[in-house]
Design brief:
The structure holds two protein chains of two kinds. Chain A is of the alpha+beta class. Chain A contains four helices and twelve strands. Chain A folds into two domains: 81 residues; 228 residues, no CATH class. In chain A, 29% of the residues lie in helices and 37% in strands. Chain B is 52% helix and 0% strand. The chains are: A alpha+beta, B mainly alpha. Chain B: This is SPW_0924 family protein.
Chain lengths: 343, 44
């Protein structure tokens, strides 16, 4: 009976010990992925921002500019690309909608971002665009990979439509979470005008006035290192309309402001990330370490039971044969130590 | 010999469980009917 128990314990111990590395290095990379149909919104605000008045082509200070950002997973398109390429991808159709203090549209920039659901690296499957212009990303955008490393990443900038390093600047504490802080500075660069602007202004209208759009930004992200999700984002953003071929003429500030995530969205993002990180930690840490520890304990118990069984057989003079039969003892040879278990 | 058999059964069970779970995978999901927003909602 004791031998059977030790064998069962040994089987369970091996099961748990094998489960630990399998969960961490086989199951986790295959199971952890961004859902194809995810839907997320974020609202960012810039208080006391500077904004161009297109009617007078003059900058003015406004109490608030709001950026509404929506990320919508296109599950049907992701399935189609997976059939074509064999890769598990996520297709995000996004919209960054900028509104003035009166709620009127200042600009709207749609995007399509196709990336690997597991690694978050961009996938070039066609259809990627920023404001209708095809792009080819070589950096991440919006979300970092799972299990973020303390290093620089390449991050795609929607305005310049190029990727540049985003630098790891240390670990910070944010709303009770230990997060990695990243920062990217885009120097003054000539960038395309959004196709949709207020008062029916078009990129062609602005060009005809002899103006071109320049932009610089310093973007900051606080990233949960487990899920790779941003829990907070800020940007010190400046845009100018500069006179083409006339560097001596004073540029018109099109937008200047410190854009911060609205407090209620920070709260909801932190709550969402906190729940999601538990799932990732379950697969990367809690289950593997738990099953390895329990497996080790059960293996030790199995060995202990086995060790208790063997000496008793030796002292009683019993010999177990394969098949469970025991030798019959000779009369008068009963061992004195046979009672009371192992010594 | 029995110990080896018990260990093999444990190992096979672990492999079978992990392979089955990863083969099934997480649910694929569908595209949300929610629109791309053009104005800020009152709350998340």
């Amino acid at each position: 009976m004791r031998r059977r128990a030790s064998l069962i314990l040994l089987g369970v111990a091996v099961f748990l010990a094998a489960l630990a590395p399998l969960l961490r290095w086989y199951a986790f990379p295959r199971l952890a992925k961004v859902p194809a149909g995810s839907y997320q919104t974020a609202v960012l605000e810039a208080k006391d921002a500077t904004l161009v008045d297109y009617a007078r082509m003059e900058p003015r200070t406004v109490p608030k500019v709001t950026l509404v950002q929506t990320l919508k997973g296109n599950a049907e398109e992701a399935r189609k690309i997976r059939r074509e390429t064999g890769r598990d991808v996520v297709v995000w159709d996004t919209l960054t909608h900028m509104n003035g203090p009166d709620g009127a549209m200042i600009s709207r920039i749609p995007e399509r971002y196709v990336f690997d659901a597991h690694s978050q690296q961009p996938v070039h499957a066609g259809g990627e665009h920023v404001d209708g212009t095809p792009v080819r990303r070589d950096g991440i955008e919006y979300k970092w990979p799972f299990l973020v490393e303390k290093r620089d990443y390449r991050y795609f900038d929607m305005q310049t439509r190029t990727s540049a390093p985003i630098h790891y600047r240390g670990t910070r504490s944010f709303r009770g979470l230990d997060v990695y802080y990243f920062e990217q500075t885009i120097p003054w660069t000539s960038v395309p005008l959004p196709k949709r602007m207020p008062l029916g202004v078009t990129p062609e209208t602005v060009r005809q006035l002899g103006l071109e759009r320049w932009y610089t930004t310093r973007r900051m992200f606080w990233i949960d290192p487990v899920t790779g999700a941003p829990v907070n984002g800020e940007e010190v953003h400046r845009e100018e309309l500069r006179w083409t071929g006339h560097p001596e003429k004073k540029p018109i500030t099109a937008f200047a402001g410190h854009v911060k995530m609205r407090a209620d969205y920070v709260d909801s993002t932190v709550a969402l990330v906190t729940s999601q990180r538990r799932l990732v930690l379950l697969l990367t840490s809690w289950l593997p370490w738990g099953s390895a520890g329990l497996g080790g304990a059960l293996a030790a118990l199995a060995l202990f039971l086995e060790a208790r069984t063997r000496p008793r057989r030796a002292f009683t003079g019993q010999k177990t044969h394969y098949g469970g039969k025991t030798e019959r003892q000779a009369p008068g040879k009963r061992a004195a130590w046979s009672r009371g278990g192992s010594p | 010999m029995r110990a080896l058999a018990a260990a093999a059964v444990g190992l096979a069970a672990a492999l079978a469980l992990v392979l089955t779970v990863t083969a099934i995978g997480p649910p694929e999901g569908t595209t949300s009917p929610e629109p791309l927003l053009t104005s800020a909602p009152a709350h998340p």
